[in-house]
């Protein structure tokens, strides 16, 4: 198949949109959502994860995910670095392999960044430096090969994951939650009070994340087709419905619409539609949005058991719960004709890619739809078990050789200036703000030193009034 310049241009554009979701999208979102003293720490964790994942990806990760078969759940490790490979034809799509390597990398990178959101403010940075490449190598590549590689066992079974609800969001949400369990909670003072240091910055990051999802789901067909267009509109409709649902539920709980809640709502909607984006009708995207804005909200606010693990950015609810939910819902709502356009002749064969709602309401056997839902549940269980097991082993190994958790002194460095970032990284997020507070303190000391004399001046009296 010859290269198609239009498809190649769209694929490169879509990949760059997804890259912007991490850099700077999640950097801004995490940096704004974190308490001020951890703004640098949370942002730098995201930047590091993006960079080291790229080196792993071209070194061995891409071929382990999309290369030749080693087992039913893993490809043969090999580099994707030489011109002969990168300039050759991609295994899917009408563009060079280099484009596919770049596109699939940005998916792998955002998965690692999401994991980091669960452990900010207490995992040692040296530990994070070890966790990311280990998790990428032992977990992410296994999930990607199993679900997306044509030789993967879940792919052969017929599991539907249009753009990464299982491979990216369910896996990263569960892995992050597991890591949070092993590293332990934040300091007592941080758990009691952890205000976002910049809601505006958080919303800006969420906006980049939302708009970047155009490439996330729109790039999944590997071509500039009608399915890509449908995936894009379904993505945004679902996100909007989810955001509005979450906001309304927040208002019933507290009487006030929450900006942080709006961010959680839109992320839940984007994650939940991802397994289904180009395979469901637009009315189904609205329905998915209503569900994604309510069930993850419920698990976050009403399931006390889940709060025993300290998950500061609610990644388990917005990624793991929403990803699993979307994975099951696509088994119900996948439209057979859309599946045929996406999967080709494989759709419908052996009862594959038939949503339960259409199996019940049409001429197809009901068993085909039930089977599809069953396969989707198998996919959820596999990804959950894989990431719990792998991340547990990684954390235990890193704890022995590197140490997982910051010292109590590093975590408790609050005082007046909240210098946790300075203690860990030697830097602070807002140097100008700290200088202003220093000058303010100096002025106060001057006033206190000569209060009696200053209080007699007309200017001071006016200021006091």
From TrEMBL:
The way it spans or sits in the membrane comes to: Multi-pass membrane protein
**Which Gene3D superfamilies does its entry note?**
Ammonium transporter AmtB like domains (1.10.3430.10)
Q: Where in the cell is it found?
A: Cell membrane; Membrane
Q: Does the keyword Transport apply?
A: yes
Gene Ontology terms: cellular component? plasma membrane
Molecular function per GO: ammonium channel activity
Keyword Transmembrane helix in annotation: yes
Database matches in InterPro entries? Ammonium/urea_transptr (IPR029020), Ammonium_transpt (IPR001905), NH4_transpt_AmtB-like_dom (IPR024041), RhesusRHD (IPR002229)
Which part of the chain is the Ammonium transporter AmtB-like domain?
Answer: 9-418
The regions listed as transmembrane in this protein's record are: 12-33, 45-62, 101-120, 127-148, 160-184, 196-216, 222-247, 259-277, 283-300, 312-334, 377-402
Report keywords, A-Z.
Ammonia transport, Membrane, Transmembrane, Transmembrane helix, Transport
Report the sequence similarity comment from the record.
Answer: Belongs to the ammonia transporter channel (TC 1.A.11.2) family.
What's the protein called, per UniProt?
Ammonium transporter
